[in-house]
Amino acid sequence: MKDVTPAIRAGFLIPLTLCAGLQVLLLFVLGGRGFAWTFHSPLSAATMGAGYCGGLAMLVCSLRLRRWVDVRVAYLSTLLLMILMLLVTLRYAGRTHLGGGDLIAFGNAWGWLIVHLLAPVVGVILLVLQLRAPGQNPPREFPRLWLTVLPIAVVALIGTGVGLFALLFPATAADRWPWPVTELDVSALGVWALVFGVGSILAIREGDPERQRAGAINYLVAGVASVIAFLRYAGEVRWDNSLSWIYLLLMILLSLTGAIGWLMAGPAERWRSAVLTD
């Protein structure tokens, strides 16, 4: 049974954990002040920050796990996030602070771009090296139950659909969004939606609660943080838009799905050995 290599931890998981922590501060706590671009609404910044809250929890959890099968959904989802966010940044580079402006925002914009340029390259190289080792797909320890697959399938369907729509038709998506957004804002939020959708598809493929532990904590933390952000900036919400209420309900259901998934995964008996062997 293949374990996560030290290179995966040191070269990808640890650096991106630190980066996710910085984005949580800038986006979720500070409402986007000093970020790589200026958001139309602080709610967009905080919502994107909620995604990084979930990502941070997922990466911290992944760092404590030993088996590659328990980590690979988190790894692949994070790698996809970095690639898609790089494409969005390059597409709307003129709307970011890469060209100047506030000194802190200017520095963060270039730091953001450099990280998103390096992470996909390093991530793909380390992934290839990890996959060359034997023992990538040990037998599942628990049977696949449709009751556990159904809520994840709903997240996969909605996340993938919303994400693709926001990325392919940003102007239309911005007009219909539950709060004021720019095309850049809605594209970045669409990246997060699509990553949740694809990550959920990968989790269904794994079909084992033990292997879905990191994804479950992501659901739970991101969902709760999204609800907090939504209520914190309730004045920004278009409450006459039915999508606002649907979004709030979906975030609550996402939190509940994550909580149930975390409980189903049970105690993480492999955490201690993962820490001690690093």
UniProtKB/TrEMBL annotation:
The chain crosses the membrane at residues 12-31, 43-61, 73-93, 113-133, 145-166, 186-204, 216-233, 245-265. Keywords: Membrane, Transmembrane, Transmembrane helix. The keyword Transmembrane helix applies. It comes from the Bacteria. This is Uncharacterized protein. It comes from Actinoplanes octamycinicus.
